[in-house]
Structure formats: C-alpha cells, structure tokens
Amino acid sequence: MEYTEKKLDAATGLLQSLVRIPSYTFNEEEIADFLESFLLERSSTLSPGYNVERIKNNLLLYSRGYSSERRTLLFCAHIDTVKESENYTFDPFCGALSDGRILGLGSNDDKGAATAAIFAFLYYMEMHGKMKINVVLALCAEEERGGENGITAVVGNLDKYGIKPDWAVVCEPTNLEAAVAERGLLVIDATATGISGHAAREEGVNALYIALDDIAILRGYRFGKTSPMMGNVKLSVTQINCGTAHNVIPDKCTFTIDIRPTEQYDNAEIVELLSRAVKSELKARNLKNKSSATPQGCLLAEWAEVSGVAKVVSPTTSDWGKISFPAMKIGPGKSERSHKADEFITVGELKGGMEKYIEIIDFINEREK
Question: Helix (H, G, I), strand (E, B), or coil: what is residue 168?
Fold first, then answer.
C-alpha cells in the first residue's frame, strides 16, 4: 500500500520515541504530553484538522469535521506498560532498531499497535473529503491495571464531545488475527475462618484445612454452560496466605481465585455459584471485566469473514470489556511476547498493522450509504 510505504519510516521513528519514554501504569503523564504535542503539530498541517482532547492521561482524537449524522468507528489502544522484567539483556527503554526489530518495553504491547492506529487515523484525515464515516482514536492510560482513569474515563466523556461510536477496534497484539471473542477476568479473594489454638494440644479449628478443602472443590468445579466460541469457564487458585507461627493453629487463611469467564455467565453469577459450593467467604475485587464477543452481522464481523484473516478467541483481557458497542480486537505483534524480557516488534508487523487498520476503515466506509 502506497500510504504505508510512504509513512513507514515516520511510524518506526515514532514507535522508537514512544518506547524510550517510561510509561508504567498510573505514570503515563510524560508519554501523554509527548503524544499530545506530536499530534497537535500534525493536525496543524491538515485541513480540516482534528481535535486532540486530553482526558486525564488519555488522548481523544476526532476530526473538526466530525458529523453526528455519520456512523463512527473508534480505534482504541493503550500507552501504558507493565514493569520491565529483570531478565532483559538490553536497556528496556532503548527503542533501538536492530535487524528489522524495534526493541524495548511496550514495543509489542501496546505501543506498536498504538502507532499503527495513529497512522491509520492520519490516513483517514488525509482522505477526509472522501469519507462517509467518522473515525475516532483513543489512546488510553491504565489498561494494564484496569484503572478507572483509562478507557472508562474516555467513554464517560464521549457525550461531552458529541461522539457516539457504532463500532470499535481494540488495538492489541494478536498477530493480526481477528479476535472475535475475549474472555473476561474475575479475581476473587477468599477467606477461610477457623478458631486459633495451640498446635501441641490440637486445639481450635484449622482455617488452612478449610481452605484446602475449598480449593479441592474449586479445582474440580465445572460450570454447566459451555460457550460455543470460548469453551468452558477457566478457574485457577493462584495464591494462598496463612499462619503466624509454627505452633499456632491458624484462625484465618486467605487465597486468591483467578477466573476467566465466557459470555455464558456474568461475573456476579459466578461469585454466587461458587459461594454456594465452598465454606470460605468470597469477595470479588470488581465485577467490571466482562467477557466480550463481536456480534454476528455487524460490519466488523463481516470484514473478518471476507478479509480471510484467521478468527480467534483471545485468552487475555483488554479494554474491550469496558465498552458497550460492537467491537473486535486486532493488532500487530504477538501476545506471547507481552510482559516478557527482550520485548520487540518487527517493522514488518508494524506496517502490517497500519495496513489492516486502513483496510478496516476503507471496508466500513465503502459499505456506508
């Protein structure tokens, strides 16, 4: 594609700059400042140009020619990262270009996809006069920790700017496969309560044994409904904490349950079902990270069908679970590189992401009346 060939060096350079800016979750101010300046500068070269709205450390971009009479496609990507692994063999903030790879923390998750989405949005702006749809871009903070001041804050402000999305592309590393479903995330803190006593006299009621019995129940628990796309709900006990001394029967034992729901259950229903099965008290950290699926018949599903891309179920959660309009997750890079040492994305993958996002824009635009 001529546009991506022409812009690839600029996109590569931008991604290198983004990797060089540390942007741990809840500390995205510096990268938001950089992107705000970068994007405002480019808007001044275009007609009609676009607005760059700052919502905490999120950026919302939309054309100054935005029309509420046109349907709207939203791209959303996140600009925060997890902490780097201790096993890096190079500076995680180097942003170096080596053997066709852009190296560093966040290059794959999610600054590569964010960069591809930025240049797809700039393509839309260059083609604005020929477009029958609106394209909006949200660059979001706090995704890696599910913070309230990320995509939730952006969605909560859309009415303020008169923006009502009809579809969303969630930009995450999927190897450019179309994730048409995504498991939710439900984290439950469980507390088993017993009675303390002296171990030598076999006094008390051992909270650890109660917890172990409950964990055995949870290990064998099977949910009744199976998703045709995602299969069964996944449940794992991942942490346990108990005891104060070797000779004291513990009166409290806490453990953590990690659950990846399907669309067959809402999170509150899962908590209720499990609470009936065990003696421990179960408390969800939050109920907001729901499972998601691309509705059959919407234009995103149609694009995935006719484009020939592989359709997959994403095992990881994202900002998709916090939006209510039809969506699909797709982006350059590979999920298995995320949150690991020596993270990278290839220049070819970056280019492929730009091309796929532009392809989606053109597809939906062509089908609008």
Answer: strand
